[in-house]
Design brief:
Blueprint (H helix, E strand, L loop, with lengths): L5 E6 L7 H14 L4 E6 L1 H4 L6 H18 L7 E4 L5 H10 L4 H5 L2 H7 L8 H15 L5 E3 L5 H17 L1 H6 L11 E3 L34 H10 L18 H14 L3 H8 L4 H27 L2 H30 L6
Parallel strand pairs: 1-2, 2-3, 4-5
Helix pairs in contact: 3-13, 4-7, 4-14, 7-8, 10-13, 11-12, 11-13
The protein binds adenosine monophosphate and tryptophan.
Length: about 350
């Protein structure tokens, strides 16, 4: 029998949650609640791989939690918590530091991008980050991981780690009477018309929390005026919209806006182009503004309300952590047995 399906994903509390996070990840988190048991984690330990101001980090942890809830994640039916409250993530990450190979991590493009030219000065945590991400997923033996396109390579690494652990310890896994595939190979779920939302200023750059220009992204906390201004100013090209998807080739800004429209309205790009093909951007943008304000406005408003109630948010995280820890501890105990550590029984 196949392992029971379990969904896990994480978002870093590093400020400026934006439309890319929402359409690439959070919308899918919400959808999967109807078919799966889901664990959604605010990955604060990942955040500190790059320096974070402590007070701001605390605020950002609450803000991501608020975004989850405001977007429609039910923290009673599913599990919502922050990573640092469940110590097993760090424990399993250490074991994975000893399973993953330097050669594997050396291939990670996100590290190369984030470390930039001054690699000597990057934190060791930034380099080992994908091992912690694998631990996040596998400490729950999760099978499905909804993420944006940029996380695909990290998911492949998580699969490699799971497989190598299962192989390296196969005798011990069997000797302890555990299932041969102790860790499942987690599958990425990269779905929807907006798995890679691009900057509104430059269609060749990913929409990102760290872009210095706030006009490059729509933040989940932007009000209607800000959303309207940013969409109106978004870069486009002089041609009218094409009638078919293949007409978007070589037109990254057009493709991005059509993808955003499709994702926000729950339609396909082809369908959107059937309606708007041949029209001017000005008109399309005006409709997109209405749609975006309609969908994002209530989420931003709810986020603001929730972040004012820190006690409520913190209670959600504590409760989620308590429930997460039960599953994580079970996996970690088995890992200790498999590796040959002695533990209190
Ligand atoms: P992060 O903010 O890096 O923790 O990302 C949280 C989630 O949002 C991950 O699943 C990312 O893949 C996704 N994500 C981040 N930026 C984008 C983007 N521009 N387009 C689509 N998905 C994104
Ligand atoms: N690395 C992911 C990002 O930057 C966040 C993350 C950490 C994550 N652990 C995870 C995503 C586990 C999915 C599963 O977006």
């Amino acid at each position: 029998m196949a392992a029971k399906e379990l969904v896990f994903s994480g978002v870093q509390p590093t400020g400026n949650l934006h439309l890319g996070n929402y359409l690439g990840a959070i919308v899918n988190f919400v959808r999967l609640q109807h078919t799966h048991t889901c664990i959604y984690c605010v990955v604060d330990m990942h955040a500190i791989t790059v320096w974070q101001d402590p007070a701001e980090l605390t605020r950002n942890i609450r803000e991501v939690t608020a975004a989850f809830i405001a977007a429609g994640i039910d923290p009673k039916k599913h599990v919502v918590f922050n990573q640092s409250q469940v110590a097993e993530h760090a424990e399993l990450a250490w074991v994975f530091n000893c399973v993953a190979r330097l050669g594997w991590l050396n291939r990670m493009t996100q590290f190369k991008e984030k470390a930039g030219k001054d690699r000597e000065n990057a934190s060791v945590g930034l380099y080992a980050y994908p091992n912690l991400m694998a631990a996040d997923i596998l400490v729950y033996r999760a099978t499905h991981v909804p993420v944006g396109e940029d996380q695909k390579q990290h998911l492949e690494l998580a699969r490699d780690i799971a497989q190598k652990f299962n192989n390296d310890f196969s005798d011990s896994i069997r000797a302890h009477g555990l299932a041969e595939k102790f860790f499942p190979l987690p599958e990425p779920l990269i779905t929807g018309p907006a798995t890679r939302v691009m900057s509104l200023r430059d269609g060749s750059k990913k929409m990102s929390k760290s872009d210095p220009s706030d006009y490059s992204r729509i933040n989940l906390t932007d009000d209607a005026d800000a959303i309207a201004q940013k969409i109106r100013k978004a870069k486009t090209d002089p041609e009218p919209l094409p009638g078919e998807e293949k007409g978007l080739a070589g037109r990254p800004e057009a493709e991005n806006l059509v993808g955003i429209y499709a994702a926000l309205s729950g339609r396909t790009k082809a369908d959107v182009l059937r309606e708007f093909g041949g029209g001017q951007f000005s008109q399309f943008k005006a409709t997109l503004v209405d749609l975006a304000v309609d969908k994002l406005g209530p989420i931003g408003a709810e986020m603001k309300k929730l972040t004012q109630d820190a006690a409520y948010v913190d209670a959600v995280l504590a409760d989620g952590a308590d429930r997460a820890r039960v599953i994580a501890a079970e996996t970690m105990n088995a890992v200790k047995d498999i590796v040959g550590f002695i533990r209190k029984r």
